[in-house]
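The instructor's notes for this session suggest beginning with a concrete chain rather than abstract definitions. Hand out the sequence below and ask the class to guess, before any prediction is shown, which regions might be ordered.
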Amino acid sequence: MKIGILEAGLLRERMAARFDPYPVMFADFLGLAHRDFEFETVSAVRGETAASVHDCDGWLITGSRHGVYDKLEWMGPLLDFVRDIAASGVPLIGVCFGHQIIAQALGGEVTKSVKGWGVGLHVYQVDQAHSWMQGGPRQAAMYAFHQDQIVECPDSARVFLSSEFCPYAGLSYGDSIISVQAHPEFAEAYEVALLEAYGGSVVPEDVTAQALASMRSGTKADTEMVANWFAEFFLSRRALAAASNS
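After discussion, reveal the predicted structure:
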C-alpha cells in the first residue's frame, strides 16, 4: 500500500542537524507496525502538489511550526487537496498541524489556544473505540508540542480522543479520515531536544519543567500502539473500498 506523506513543515536548522525530517520520522513510525507500506513525499510546504488524490492509496499530513491561520501561499492548495481527499473516500490521517488543517478545510476553526502550550507526554482518553483500535484501549499517551488547538469542530467530525487540556485531541470523519493533535511519531529524544531548544524562550520555563516531569513520571508513550492504529486504519479502509468495488 502506497502512503503519500504531505510534508507541511521543515525542521529548524538546529533540529535538522540532529534529526530526520518529518517524512522519515513517519516512515519509521509506521514501520513499527510491520505492514507492507511504501512511501512517497509531497512537500506541500515547498509548494509541491500531487496530480491526483488517487496517486497514493492513502495520505498523511505532517506537523508544522506554522499555524493554519497564517494563510501562507502553499496552504490554499493543501486545503483544496484535503477537500478533494474527503470527497474521494481515499483514507487520510492528519497529525498536529495536519489535524488542524483538516478541521479548517472541512468547516472547523483553529486558533492559538488561551490554554497556552501543550508539551511533554500527554495522556488522552479514548472516547470512541474504533475497529482499527486493537484491543479497545481506554487511553493513549503521546508526546505533544503545540500551542494551537481546534476550537470548533466541523459538523462531520466525531471526537475519539480527548483530555482536559485538549478536548478535540482525536477526530474521525466518517470512515475515511482520522486525525490527532499530538505527535505519536516523535521519539523521546526529539521531544526532549525541542524542550531544551525552546524552553524558557518560546515555551515558558514552568511549562517546560512540567513537561520534562511528565516524561519522568513512569508513563511511557504508546508509540507502537498508535502506529498499529494508523496502519490498521489505512489497511481497513483499503479493504472496505475493495469490497464496495467488487
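Then share the key points. The chain has seven helices and eleven strands. Residues 2-115+148-186+222-245 form a domain with the Rossmann fold fold (CATH 3.40.50.880).
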